[in-house]
Design goal:
It is a single chain. Helix content is 21%, strand content 27%. It has 382 residues and is an alpha/beta fold. It folds into three domains: 91 residues, MurE/MurF, N-terminal domain (Udp-n-acetylmuramoylalanyl-d-glutamate--2,6- Diaminopimelate Ligase, Chain: A, domain 1), CATH 3.40.1390; 164 residues, Hexapeptide repeat proteins (UDP N-Acetylglucosamine Acyltransferase, domain 1); 41 residues. The chain has a twelve-stranded mixed β-sheet. A ten-stranded parallel β-sheet has the order 8-11-14-17-20-25-28-31-34-37, with no helix packed on it. It has a nine-stranded parallel β-sheet with strand order 9-12-15-18-23-26-29-32-35, with no helix packed on it. The longest helix has 39 residues. The radius of gyration is 32 Å and the shape is flat. The relative contact order is 0.05.
Length: 382
Amino acid sequence: MKLPAPMTLGQIAEFIGGKVDGPADLVVENVATSPMAAAESDLAFVFDKQLLKQIDQCKAKAIIVPQGTKLNKPTISVARPNLAIYKMLMVVGSKRYLPEKGIHPSAIVDPSCDISPDVAIGPLVVIGPRTKIGARTKIMANTVIGGEVSIGEDCLFHPSCMIADKVQIGNRVILQQGASIGADGFGYVTERPSNMELRMAGINELSDEPNPLLKIPQIGTVIIEDDVEIGSNSTIDRATIGATRVGHGTKIDNLVMMAHNCQIGTEVILVAQVGIAGSCTIGDRAVIAGQAGMKDHIKIGKDAIIEGQAGVMRDVADKDIHLGSPSYNVREYMTVHVLTRKLPSLFNQSKAMEKKILDLQNQLDELKESIKSSSVFETSKK
């Protein structure tokens, strides 16, 4: 990646908050996309411990490394590597092709909408009645926005997003392509107890008679607070009553499913393919890793971590770490995991002990028979 202009290591260090070890006036023009493929004129990032072991193979002119790393070439050391990457990419990031300010001729915007003059609305966008859109927001092609939607300032909606009626979206919200906000929650009821309900109650006398699923009206909304980002093809359902809420600064990855009436705290991280059932509460700064799932009405505490593919069936306390399916505390899980790995040897020991016990039992039976025979013989002699 080419820098906007040649920069010295001293300039780069000042920008990313690092310290130069070597000539501060050394000039670089490019940032290598991979340290092992770096050219002799490049600047490279090397933060991975395994890559640091192979650092002699890196041909870069200079290297950005974690604090405390010593190399035989010019370096910039940083305390927080990912923060350094963030700051550097803010410089070298390529231009995005966003819609120009104004409304594209192919867009359909209801005349009752209240749209700030500097909003950019791309081709084939549809916006329903009485929707309000704040200053400098950009809406890309094929996005559909319903009626009475409220959208704040400086938002960016990528192509083909779907925002249903009466959804409320704050400032600086990013929706990646295909995000769906405000679809109906999944709620149904039957006139009489369903076979599932009967089975759950322990009743096995079931019926084959029709018992239609009646859709419960989903009359609530979704509230997305400021500085939230929602990934591609993620879905957030509207509440049955009230609001499904996503708190300030929360970041949601691709393919996340959030059901009706969930309450998500501030600065929460939801990684790809997380599934959250209805009416769950997730505390501030919790991290839910990929493919984890939660049953309905679960409460995840503040600063809790749910590891990947965990199946959460009960509440998780503040600052707790859960993994496994069904999930439980990491200390318990690791204890059980270690003991489970010992099961084959424990089984073999058990079989060996069983054999020894049987052998001892046979020896004891033989001894009893021998004593009995000896007693009979002595009696007969008398």
